[in-house]
Structure formats: C-alpha cells, structure tokens
Amino acid sequence: MGSVEARGRIRERGLPRRAFLTIVGGVLLVSPLRAEAQPAGKVPRIGYVTSSARSVNVDAFDQGMRDLGYTIGQDIVIEYRFAEGRIDQLPTLVDELLRVKVDVLYAPSPQAMRAASQATRIVPIVGVDLETDPVDAGWVKNLARPGGNITGFFLDLPELSGKQIQFLTEAVPRLQRVAVLWDASVAKSQFKATEGAARAVRLKLQSLPVRQPEDFAASFEAAHKQRAQALVLLSAPSVFLNLNRLADLALQYRLPAICVFPQFADAGGLMGYGPNLTDLFRQAAIYVDRILKGAKPADLPIQRPAVFRLAVNLKTVKALGLTMGPSFLSRADKIIE
Q1: 185-to-90, 106, 132, 136, 178 alpha-carbon distances in Å
Q2: Do domains 31-155+276-299 and 157-274+309-336 have the same CATH topology?
Q3: pLDDT tens, residue by residue, 112-171
Q4: Which residues touch 305 (CB under 8 Å, ≥6 apart)?
Q5: CA-to-CA distance for 49 and 39, rounded, in angstroms?
C-alpha cells in the first residue's frame, strides 16, 4: 500500500501511538529486547508476499523486526515478493518462497492471504487482512485458538461497520440512502457486515461492487443517479492506493464519504475511521518473531485492533455544506482545517 499526500493544516489529538491490540484468549504480546539464537548455522528466512508494490508499510514491518533485535541480512533474511497489482501472479510468488524454504510466510493483504492459504498447510502464515473474516473463510477454527498454520491480525467487521454508519448518520442530516463502494474480489464479508449495520438503522443501501480502480468513476455516477446521500468506502488495497482519487470523486459528486483508512480525510475525503496500519505492520513482526522461536500459529490467537482513529476534514465539511458541532468534533483524533 502506498502513502497519501496530506492536504490542509492538521490538528491532532494525542492518543498512545502504540496502544493497539486487544488480547484474545488471555495471551499478551510482549516484545523481547533481543532475538534469541536459532540452531547453529541456520539463519531464519521470512517470506514477505503482498498484492501491492513496496511501500512505507514494508518499512514498518522491517523496523518491527529490528526493534526485536534482528539485523536484516545478517541474522535474518527477508525474501520480498511484490505482485504490484497483478493478483494472478501471487500463487507463483508464494510458490517461489516455498521453494526457497522460508520459515514463515508473511502475507499482509487479503489476496496474498488467500494465495498463501491455498499453497501450504504446513509453513506458518502470519496475515494482516482488513477485509476477511478468517473463521468464515475457513482459515482458522476460532479466534482464540486458530488450530492450523494461520494466525494474524484481522478487523472485527461488524463493529467497524456499525461505527462508520453511526458517524455518517450523525454527520448527514436526515440520512436515508447510503451507497457502499466495495471490492467484490476481497470484501464480501465486510460488505455483509455493512449491509447489516445499515439495515439496523433502517437505511436504504445501494451496493457498488468494483473489481478494479477503473470502475470507480462509474460507481460514483451510479450513486449520483440513485440519489445516494452518503457513501461508505470499504477497505481494499485498491482503495488505499487511490485515496486521493476517491476523495476527489466524492467532492465532485458532493457525497459525504467515510473510509476505513484515516488517511482518507488527509486526502480530502470527509471522514476516515479505522486502525493505524503502520502500527499493525510493526505488531505483526512480534508474531513472526514468536513463530521463529518455536511458537505454533495454531496456539497464537487472532488479534483485533483495539484503538481506532477518527479523522475529519473541516474544509470538506464546509464544501459539502454540512455542520459538525463541538460534540461530534470532540471525538475526532485528527482534524484537518
């Protein structure tokens, strides 16, 4: 995933930057100061495979390994494979990593997780996936004890969707119709959760499934024709990589929009609400480290983000003719003016 250019002056409220994970199954993540030695003559090898190009999130994972005492290239090797949007190449990239006998596969995207899970049930897999329910997908038995070769970091989709819908209903007066733009290749569970959240507050929902960024403009046009009053942008790598473009389209069609990535507000969108991806990638290094030291993925509980950040762009609030009172803005962690 790539970075997003910030627009406007930013006023940010302080939250503990590393206060992040909830504990499932009573397991506490504690970062050791130094990495313990592997068997003599063996240098641990991590296979890093993802659907996008190299980004700042890769650097965050690398820094997480350094924080644990590793020197990359000396006492640990990371084999990087970037599909750069060519999703059909992921199975080949995973096979390459398995052939060089990596000790752990790290798969920080839903497409990479799918390819890795289909390729091996033996090599441990640590995933970062904001779009998939790992139980519903059949990857794990339950959150507390996954039971196989997969563990990692996944969103609580119903809870997230409920908060996004709540923020929109508070920000948009007399909201009745909301459109949902979602990547049909990865976000089915997320869309189902959002559909349920909208139904719970009696909102009419318009589904806007897309398969590639080229579909975005037509989806906004469809939302406009159906007189949608607001828009939810569900999580997907393609969405994260195109936040500036999506924010521009939302302004063009005068659609108040919220996205799971807080950076959406930096890009000019109305609101972003979700976890800090950089922290998530750093935390993933802890699970990789634990597996390298002998822990089994089957015993490492699935982790959920516990801290979410709400970002609001006041310039966009004014451009859309909305009013956000002090009680609403007091809940924002970041305000772009």
Answers
A1: 14, 20, 11, 15, 21
A2: yes
A3: 999 999 999 999 999 999 989 999 999 999 999 999 999 999 988 888 899 999 999 999
A4: 20, 21, 22, 153, 155, 156, 274, 275, 280
A5: 25
State the pLDDT confidence band at 41, using cuts at 50, 70 and 90: low
The second-level CATH assignment, the architecture, of 31-155+276-299 is: 3-Layer(aba) Sandwich (3.40)
- The domain spans of the chain are 31-155+276-299, 157-274+309-336
Which residues, other chains included, contact 12 with Cβ-Cβ below 8 Å and sequence gap of 6+? 333, 334, 335
**pTM for the structure as a whole:** 0.82
- How many other C-beta atoms can be found within 10 angstroms of the C-beta atom of residue 96? 14
What's the 3-state SS for the chain?
CCCCCCCCCEEECCCCCCCCECCCCCCCCCCCCCCCCCCCCCCCEEEEEECCCCCHHHHHHHHHHHHCCCCECCCEEEEEEECCCCHHHHHHHHHHHHHCCCCEEEECCHHHHHHHHHHCCCCCEEEEECCCCCCCCCCCCCCCCCCCCEEEEECCHHHHHHHHHHHHHHHCCCCCEEEEEEECCCCHHHHHHHHHHHHHCCCEEEEEEECCHHHHHHHHHHHHHCCCCEEEECCCHHHHCCHHHHHHHHHHCCCCEEECCCHHHHCCCCEEEECCHHHHHHHHHHHHHHHHCCCCHHHCCCECECCCEEEEEHHHHHHCCCCCCHHHHCCCCEEEC
The structure tokens listed for 287 are 């699970």
Instruction: Pull the structure tokens for residue 57.
Output: 């999130």
CA 48 to chain centroid: 17
Mean pLDDT of the chain: 87
pLDDT (0 to 100) of residue 14: 42
Domain 157-274+309-336 in CATH 3.30.420.40? no
Q: Are 113 and 243 in contact (CB under 8 A)?
A: no
